[in-house]
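Notes to self after the call with IL:
- keep both proteins in one doc
- input above output, always
- annotate only the second one for now

Protein 1:
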Amino acid sequence: MKKVIGLVLLAALYYAHGYYVFGENHLNAWFARSNEAVINGKENACDDFSHDVQFNITQKTSEGDTLMEGGYSKLCDLTRSAAEGAMGFAQLKSPGPSGANMNTYTRVISTELSEFPWLQATVKAHQTTRITMGRNPPVIDEGDFTLLVERTYQGLKIKRLTGTSEMRIIEDEIAAPAEEAPEAAPKKK
């Protein structure tokens, strides 16, 4: 009887773990951690990609469309160079204390679990990256992506990534100048 209860409990925990791991809140937090690693150029920026990942992304700009596709090495190189390039460009356009800033937000639109044993999920997400460069107009990159995410012993891994993103400059929105910090009031003795 104890074995049956133990097996039922183990099955319930396995189901609950799959439900939690592929839940919207957990996936949004996972995307936030992944985005932070990429933006900050951390060594673990590519850890969320499976080594057999395949990707296909169309980047739309005012100069035309660019198709990017490949596997792990190419996606990892692209991820790192995109973050470095965006921040490098922003800092060239806006040197000084007002500097550049890049924020990326990914929001899960829907999640569809694979069949039992729930080791994979198809995740549809919308990602917005905003780069501000002092008083220059901000650059926005928005995209919709479909990812095949798998649950592994090392955590979640992206196995397939497809999507389209569009980069544009928001001409009618110019950032306000950075305000200088007020000087501290003299201390009373």
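Protein 2 (the one to annotate):
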Amino acid sequence: MEPDVRWLIIDKASSFDAFKKNFVPKTQIADSVDIGIKTHYEITKKLIIHSYFEYEFITVALRNGLLLLEFTLNHYYEKINGVKCKMMLAASSKWFKNQNLIEGEEEMMVVDLIRVIRNYHMHPQTHTVLPPSAIDVIELIAVWINKLDERVSKLLSLD
């Protein structure tokens, strides 16, 4: 397969190895995180890798990353409460904030920003092609998953 020509104009993506080094998220999901969440994240990273050959897979990767965030919140809600989460993303995020599992500026970065991006992509009005910076949002989600896992583990160890 040939690289998508859109990557070839970016210095940091001059070869497949350079692309992987500079654009594929480096964050690893912690060992303590559920295997389903880790698998979903690895699939998201594979979509990013495939974008080297079909640029628009960045958009697909971001959408998958947003679903990963929602899946993660649902998983930890169930882990804490013993029942499935039936809330929409906004209500679920608010619940996690009220439990002090979303802290400080994470509310703006993780909850508000990602909810806006998610709603835009889950209810599209037009075809969208995202810039490489969309990968930063996926990295942010991965970092936050590790933080949430640590906080939930701490919370459950207090019980």
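Annotation: The chain has a mean pLDDT of 89. The helical segments are 5-8, 16-23, 35-50, 57-81, 89-98, 106-122, 134-158.
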